[in-house]
Design a protein that fits this description.
It is a single chain. By secondary structure, this protein is an all-alpha fold. The chain has one domain. It is about 55% helix and about 0% strand. The protein contains seven helices and no strands. Helix 2 packs across helix 3 and helix 3 packs across helix 6. The longest helix is centred in the last third of the chain and has 14 residues. It is globular, with a radius of gyration of 15 Å.
C-alpha cells in the first residue's frame, strides 16, 4: 500500500546521520549507561543524552542549553536516539542531570573508558 502525501514525514539527517552511526558502532550509549546507570522511568538514558550532546555539538550550533531541544525539531530524533524520544525530552533539566552524573562519576574515567575501547577495536 502506498502512503498518502499526508502520511509522509520528511526529516533532516545531514552529516549527523554519519555521526550517529559512528557513535552507535562504538557502543558509546551502552558504555555510558553502564557507567552511570539508568532508571526505568527515564525516557532518555544518560548515554542517549550524551549522544544528543555530541550530535548537537557537531551540528555547528552554539546555542544556550535551554534552547537545546529546538535543535532537534525537524530532525530525525527518533532515528538518531531511539524510539519514543522527541525533541521535548531533550530539555535542559535532563541534560543538566546527566552532566552532574558525568561529573560525579569522573569525566576523565568515562572518557578514558570510551577511548580505550576505541583503541582496542
Amino acid at each position: 500500500m502506498t502512503p498518502s502525501v499526508s502520511q509522509i514525514r520528511i526529516q533532516d539527517l545531514d552529516h549527523l546521520g554519519i555521526v550517529a552511526g559512528i557513535i552507535d558502532s562504538m557502543n558509546l550509549v551502552e558504555q555510558i549507561n553502564q557507567i552511570l546507570g539508568t532508571h526505568p522511568q527515564e525516557i532518555v538514558s544518560p548515554g542517549q543524552a550524551v549522544k544528543a550532546m555530541i550530535i548537537n555539538g557537531l551540528g555547528l550550533v552554539s546555542a544556550p542549553l535551554y534552547l537545546f531541544e529546538k535543535f532537534f525539531v525537524g530532525k530525525a530524533t527518533e532515528h538518531f536516539l531511539g524510539d519514543g524520544i522527541a525533541p521535548e525530552h531533550l530539555n535542559d533539566d535532563r541534560l543538566g542531570r546527566v552532566l552532574d552524573k558525568l561529573y560525579e562519576a569522573g569525566l576523565t574515567q568515562v572518557l578514558d573508558f570510551g577511548f580505550s575501547w576505541c583503541a582496542m577495536s
